[in-house]
Amino acid sequence: QDKSYLMIPGPTPVPPSVVAAMTAPMFGHRSEDFQAMHKEIIGKLQKLFQTQNEIYVLTSSGTGGMESAVANTVSPGDKVLTLVGGKFGERWSELANQYGAEVIELNYEWGTCVDPQAVQEQLAANPDIKVVFATQNETSTGVTNDIEALGKIVAQTPALFVVDGVSGVGGIEIKVDEWNVDILTTGSQKSLMLPPGLAIQSISDKAWKKIEENKSPRYYFSLLKARKQYPKWNTAYTPAVSLFVGLNAALDMILNEGLDNVYARHKLMRDATRAAIRALGLNLMTDDAYASPVVTSVYAPEGIGADDIRKVLKQEYNITFAGGQAKLKNKILRIAHMGFADKMDIIIAVSGLEMALQKVGYPVELGAGVKAAQQVFLGVL
Ligand code: PMP
Fold this sequence. Notes:
It is built from 13 helices and 13 strands. It has helices spanning about 15-20, 30-50, 60-75, 85-100, 115-125, 145-155, 205-215, 225-230, 240-255, 260-280, 305-315, 345-360, 370-380, and strands spanning about 5, 55-60, 80-85, 100-105, 130-135, 135-140, 145, 160-165, 185, 200-205, 295-300, 320-325, 330-335. The strands form 3 sheets. The protein has a 7-stranded mixed beta sheet with strand order 2-10-9-8-5-3-4, sandwiched between helices. Strands 1-12-13-11 form a 4-stranded mixed beta sheet. A two-stranded antiparallel ribbon has the order 6-7. The protein is globular and about 60 Å long. The two termini are about 35 Å apart. Bound molecules: 4'-deoxy-4'-aminopyridoxal-5'-phosphate.
């Protein structure tokens, strides 16, 4: 079926103009054309990241970008702090463990955000912490953490502040310089509206100092090697040229819409989705205070498997929601509204959900969720 509605938190739908851009004939990655495009892309990314820092576009999935951040900053035996409230926070711990770090894990309940005060206490108790690893948008639970507050705290210490922005950047505001983010690492296939295959990261001066003295083995992900090529707008190895072309086009879309408008659009989709879920009598996993603008987690009704609802959605309406991961498996639905998404996507999602709920034996008032979403969009709720 060609007509499908992909509403998972990555990969996300790619806009037709970006697809079209990526069909351009291949060109060499050592050519002047590539260098000119690379320079343009970095300028646009600096606007998106709100930073003067150098930004590296790696040919890799999002996890590769996370590994690059760890491999380049963590030496064996270093004490690091990971903030863990979901599957992607756990990934920081796993990576840091692989690189021989002494990992202090600050666990916060899945579905809530990390308390900056608790981070401050950990840093005070462990002044030898070298790196703090955080997640901007915890995709597994639908929580957005307060990066500004965390950055302010970490900046007062010698520790680096490394942030996974894989699912949030492009949909949720980030201010790398003002918020003291030493490394922000993101991915192409979520709010940036591209296919999978790129990881993008900014590196602060404070981070470069640590990277230079780092003792972990690195080859493909050596940022020092990448930095040698940077002034020439080259990459160390063959980059995914077509994805770079797509990135250039996607960044144009984002910057032409305007960052403030992009962020407001995502918050509006979040608010409409949440109003609809409440109108249907279902339970949201997260509080309003830290609910993600790009993905909404919803508990399945008592006694009904979330995956049964997803199956009906897929089979009957060709709508794909994500399910729960790890301990949330079969318990929640995750409705993504990130990147190339707008009001009518929410109407489709909610309308399909209402019908699917009916079919799995959880009768709802048809149209109640759609109406609530419409009211949010019209500003009358
Ligand atoms: N971090 C976050 C917050 C994510 O959402 C994801 C992807 N779901 C990743 C990291 C990993 O990215 P990838 O699957 O591209 O390696």
